[in-house]
Amino acid sequence: MTITFVKNNVDKTEALSNDQLGTDLATNPANEGLGKGDSAPNFKLTTLEGKEVSLADYKGKKIVLNFWATWCPPCKEEMPFMQNYYEDMAVKENVEILAINLDSGIDKVKAFQQDYALSFPILFDEEGKVGKTYQVITIPTTYIIDANGTIQNKIVGPMDEQMLTDLVKSLDE
């Protein structure tokens, strides 16, 4: 699997400007991978704690499905925003963030989780099977999935907290 990433040179705590943020499916000329209206394929992966989970386990919840890697600078930029959103809004908005890591080497991923104090589930896709199923080419790539399991949006590139908030709110419109 070939993975590319969007390059950003911003401070970890700095808000991302519009030209640094990812693009949504409607404005992405490549329209790579699955898209709006597609059913989100189910999968089974293991968390960093060794628990097997599937997408179906979260039926009835809105899902932010994020594909990332520890070496990816834009992934590093968006993780604090995702963590802030998770702490502040996930329960209130009935949202689960599932961060699917495409690295090899679970120790690197665990160290990253600790360094960034991430509390949302991180799933390990070392062989890239789920990444292939979702046809992820660029990372970070994030799918916004409604409570019925339908993909409603896809972002290629990093998000900030406001963008994430707006995308999840759009599921209720």
UniProtKB/TrEMBL annotation:
<dbReference type="InterPro" id="IPR000866">
    <property type="entry name" value="AhpC/TSA"/>
</dbReference>
<dbReference type="InterPro" id="IPR013766">
    <property type="entry name" value="Thioredoxin_domain"/>
</dbReference>
<dbReference type="GO" id="GO:0016491">
    <property type="term" value="F:oxidoreductase activity"/>
</dbReference>
<protein>
    <submittedName>
        <fullName>TlpA family protein disulfide reductase</fullName>
    </submittedName>
</protein>
<dbReference type="InterPro" id="IPR050553">
    <property type="entry name" value="Thioredoxin_ResA/DsbE_sf"/>
</dbReference>
<keyword id="KW-1015">Disulfide bond</keyword>
<feature type="domain" description="Thioredoxin">
    <location>
        <begin position="34"/>
        <end position="173"/>
    </location>
</feature>
<dbReference type="Pfam" id="PF00578">
    <property type="entry name" value="AhpC-TSA"/>
</dbReference>
<dbReference type="InterPro" id="IPR036249">
    <property type="entry name" value="Thioredoxin-like_sf"/>
</dbReference>
<dbReference type="InterPro" id="IPR017937">
    <property type="entry name" value="Thioredoxin_CS"/>
</dbReference>
<dbReference type="GO" id="GO:0016209">
    <property type="term" value="F:antioxidant activity"/>
</dbReference>
